[in-house]
Specification:
By secondary structure, the protein is an alpha/beta fold. The chain folds into 2 domains: 10-140, Four Helix Bundle (Hemerythrin (Met), subunit A) (Up-down Bundle), CATH 1.20.120.420; 143-353, Rossmann fold (3-Layer(aba) Sandwich), CATH 3.40.50.10470. The protein has helices at residues 37-45, 52-68, 75-90, 97-111, 118-148, 174-183, 200-211, 224-229, 255-264, 296-299, 340-347, 350-353, and strands spanning 10-13, 16-20, 31-34, 154-159, 187-193, 216-219, 235-238, 242-244, 249-252, 269-272, 278-279, 300-301, 304-305, 318-321, 328-331, 334-336. The strands form 4 sheets. Strands 6-5-4-7-10-15-16 form a 7-stranded mixed sheet, with helices on both faces. The chain has a 4-stranded mixed sheet with strand order 11-8-9-14, with helices on one face. Helix 6 (174-183) links the parallel strand 4 and strand 5 (187-193). Helix 1 (37-45) runs antiparallel to helix 2 (52-68) and helix 3 packs antiparallel against helix 4 (97-111).
Length: 354
């Protein structure tokens, strides 16, 4: 199929979780093998696996590994053990709400399995984790189907960070929209922001698009305004890590700048995200926790200093794009347009996100 691309980001087999090492790309394709939930948490923190949906999927399988290590038959002690494992995992990355959403789904399995043996509960939990992963792939394709209706027959698209197969169960949110439009034989060209400081756009998005044979041009983050001024961008589409009930959206640092530039140049700015990324408990983006990562990520790259080692550095991983700068939010249940709050509440079943 035109634009097809399926590289396994996550695979559970032989009682272990295999995670594509996204820190090694594009130089090397290798997998990190996790045998317990502590190793999965470390892989999430160090961004071996990354992207809100993929983090949720990895955390779900981490709970399967956790119960697999439990050897006591006492049910109440098992519940305490699993709750502690859940709390431990949920602290890995604070901004991506899909992490807690997936863990809550797993919790429902063990909380409603009274009387079953640990190995029986493990089978149920493994089934739920597999469901979360397979559902994500289908959700991504539905997002792609809805979002492709917003893409003209010929379009230059700017995207930021990586919201593709590497960040999800295998197809992508923002890149899923682009893939679908490309498969519909639309004339697509993508500008991929490099996405400092970890270069997810340069390393991951370009890799995906090249593999899918979708025309892509890598640009530095600070080139976006110039491209728009030169009328070389028709629309911007990005993913999301958490969306408040009013539509304010947390995404990779630098997204807000793109939204401001797009608004100034009258360019549509779209968010593509599953409903699991919405947090209707938060009234606005100001309440979304923003992860601050090590300043060393700014001072050095792959161990090579690019700044004085003692310079102060500020490294928030995400920023907040206010709803008034967002043209539409693309979900698996359709396209949401402003005003957002009432439409978000109508489209979301609260039971799906608790």
């Amino acid at each position: 199929m035109r634009g097809d691309f399926y590289l396994k980001t996550i695979e559970f087999r032989d009682n272990a979780l295999y995670l594509l090492d996204q820190n090694a790309l594009p130089q090397e394709k290798k997998y990190v093998v996790c045998h317990d939930h502590q190793e999965v948490r470390n892989a999430i923190i160090n961004m071996t696996t990354r992207g809100a949906p993929a983090i949720g999927i990895a955390a779900a399988f981490a709970m399967v590994l956790a119960i697999g290590k439990y050897k006591n038959s006492d049910y109440s002690k098992m519940l305490t053990y699993l709750r502690e494992a859940k709390t431990y995992l949920s602290s890995a990355r604070p901004t991506a709400v899909n992490l807690v959403w997936a863990l809550n789904r797993m919790e429902k399995v063990w909380e409603t399995s009274s009387g079953l043996k640990p190995e029986e509960i493990k089978r149920l939990m493994l089934s739920e984790a597999m469901n979360i992963m397979s559902e994500d792939l289908q959700i991504n394709k539905m997002i792609g189907s809805y979002g492709s209706t917003l893409i003209p027959s010929k379009a230059d698209i700017l995207t930021h960070c990586n919201a593709g197969a590497f960040a999800t169960g295998g197809f992508g949110t923002a890149l899923g929209v682009i893939r679908t439009a490309f498969e519909q034989n639309k004339e697509i060209h993508v500008y991929a922001d490099e996405t400092r400081p970890l270069l997810q756009g340069a390393r991951l998005t370009t890799t995906e698009l090249i593999e899918a044979k979708i025309p892509v041009t890598l640009v530095a983050d600070n080139m976006a305004g110039h491209l728009m001024q030169q009328k070389r961008v028709d629309l911007v589409i990005v993913g999301a890590d958490r969306i408040a009930v009013n539509g304010d959206t947390a995404n990779k640092i630098g997204t807000y700048s793109l939204a401001v530039l797009a608004a100034y140049h009258n360019i549509p700015f779209y968010i593509a995200a599953p409903l699991s990324t919405f947090d209707i408990s938060l009234t606005a983006g100001e309440h979304i926790p923003i992860e601050e990562r090590s300043p060393d990520e700014l001072r050095a790259w792959k161990g090579i200093l690019i700044a004085p080692p003692d310079v102060n550095a500020y490294n928030p991983a995400f920023d907040i794009t206010p709803n008034e700068l967002i043209t539409a939010i693309i979900t698996e249940k359709g396209i949401i347009t402003p005003p957002y709050k009432d439409k978000i509440l109508r489209i979301i079943d609260p039971k799906e996100i608790k």
